[in-house]
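The authors assume throughout that readers already know how a fold can be written as discrete tokens. In essence, backbone conformation is discretised, so a fold becomes a row of integers matching the chain in length. A single example would do more here than another paragraph of explanation. For illustration, here is how one protein appears when written out as sequence plus structure tokens:

…
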Amino acid sequence: MLTSELEFDLPSDRIAQSPSDRRDGSRLLVYQRETGCVFHHHFHELPKLLPAKLSILRNDVSVLKARLPGYRPTGGSVECLLLRPADPPETTWRCLLKPGGKTAKAGTFRLDGEYQAEVLESLPSGEYLIRFTLPKDEDAPSLAQRIGSLPLPPYVRRPAGHADEERYQTVYAKDKNRTAVAAPTAGLHFTPELIDQLLADGHNIHDLTLSVGLGTFRPIETDRVEDHPMHAEEYFLSPATKSVLRDKSAKKLAIGTTCVRAIEHYLGGQDSSPDLPTRAEAQLFIRPSYEFLGIDHLLTNFHLPGSTLLCLVAAFLSPGQSDGLDKLKELYADAISKEYRFFSYGDAMLIL
């Protein structure tokens, strides 16, 4: 497949810059694969739109306030973006630096009274290995939560504000899982009341944790989709969640593409210790004509042109076939004509 096939025209005013007034006030496009029918709803109507007694899988990761301010020894400013821990994880992290070259050449940067940082290595990926000295905090995430800011996606053309600290997290995000630099955005639409209704209706809800990285925003830059080097993201599955995934009798709804990647990666391998937790890295590139192993329905937002997420949703629209992208473009054209909002703070799509 040519990467150029993943492009579509999206008016700039369709890119949501802020969330809807209410989480569940966002719009919801529903597509039934069996009939080809499309319906338009609002997210608070989700409980009445779902098949009965689903196993619902959601990503309980929390977004780290990963942008750290700092200064080089010359006084020039630095922005350090925490990506993921290295070894030892408390003080050594893979990061992005802005400016990268000048900061790496300087070798150190700091914020007086808060931290000192040493650039240990410039990595081929464009990332940097950074070792922190932390006089006030036990680890880098603790520092980030005190002085950092949320890393809103690049297409949100404004600084992160106080309201984003609530709205760019799901209501079920766990503080102990504060390891993501981007939100699992399909989950942003849920409210506690809506979750209670789903449980009352007989659905079961199960958590997994996938640490969403910046690779989720990285466009495909190769001419052929198949040549794209897929990024890896760490995930964690409890024994209870793994048991649900292996239960073929339960119909499963994945809340977002992050859940899909974790689930499909796990089911695609061998588990020699099903009674123990699994921690692994998913480097799975799902694209047409992928055959899904453990997902029956998908809830997702509207994604960027030229992205790997577009490939995943296209594959899910027509599993095992190559025509999913054509269907996806039809659905996106319909959504654009009806003024749906796109990307992280935008509206949602339910594929049944």
Summary: The mean pLDDT is 95. The first strand starts at residue 27 and ends at 32.
